[in-house]
Amino acid sequence: MTDQQTNGAAAEDNSPQFSMQRIYVRDLSFEAPKSPQIFRQTWEPSVALDLNTKQKALEGDFHEVVLTLSVTVKNGDEVAFIAEVQQAGIFLIKNLDASSMSHTLGAFCPNILFPYARETLDSLVTRGSFPALMLSPVNFDALYAQELQRMQEAGETPTVQ
């Protein structure tokens, strides 16, 4: 009986584990270089979105993933505003093979962080007195697959930091 409990606990220790520990804003910025003049113009915006992710191993099986959303909105040729949020999370991730760990950090965690970053960015923009900025959902699995393909073509190997 004791052997079965010990073996069961050992098997349980080797099973994959994932849990969110904390989600937080790491950095936040907003700039409206042409205000207040920009508010007196006809609003015909063009939006440029840049997104990036990075991950860092912390102590033990903890990992920090940071999703950065940078938005530049122009009205005609003038920059109306620039907004950036670094939405971060600390995740406990255990007992994954290298490929699964890479996918979890490169796609799964950013998928969790994106709604938080999108809401923070939208709130920031409306506080700047601009119309709401409702970003479309992002397919991080597709972006991750594209990055893996790019790395394979370049002869690089994905690494988990």
Automatic annotation (TrEMBL):
User: Which top-level group of life is the source organism from?
Assistant: Bacteria
This protein's record includes keyword Protein transport: yes
- Which GO terms of the molecular function aspect are on file? unfolded protein binding
Any one Gene Ontology cellular component term annotated for this protein: cytoplasm
The protein's matches in Gene3D superfamilies, at most eight in alphabetical order, are given as: SecB-like
Pfam families attached here?
SecB
Localization per Swiss-Prot or TrEMBL: Cytoplasm
Keywords of the record, alphabetical order, are: Chaperone, Cytoplasm, Protein transport, Translocation, Transport
Q: Name one GO biological process term.
A: protein transport
Of which family is this protein a member? Belongs to the SecB family.
Assembly, per entry: Homotetramer, a dimer of dimers. One homotetramer interacts with 1 SecA dimer.
Describe its function: One of the proteins required for the normal export of preproteins out of the cell cytoplasm. It is a molecular chaperone that binds to a subset of precursor proteins, maintaining them in a translocation-competent state. It also specifically binds to its receptor SecA.
Q: What is the official name of this protein in its record?
A: Protein-export protein SecB
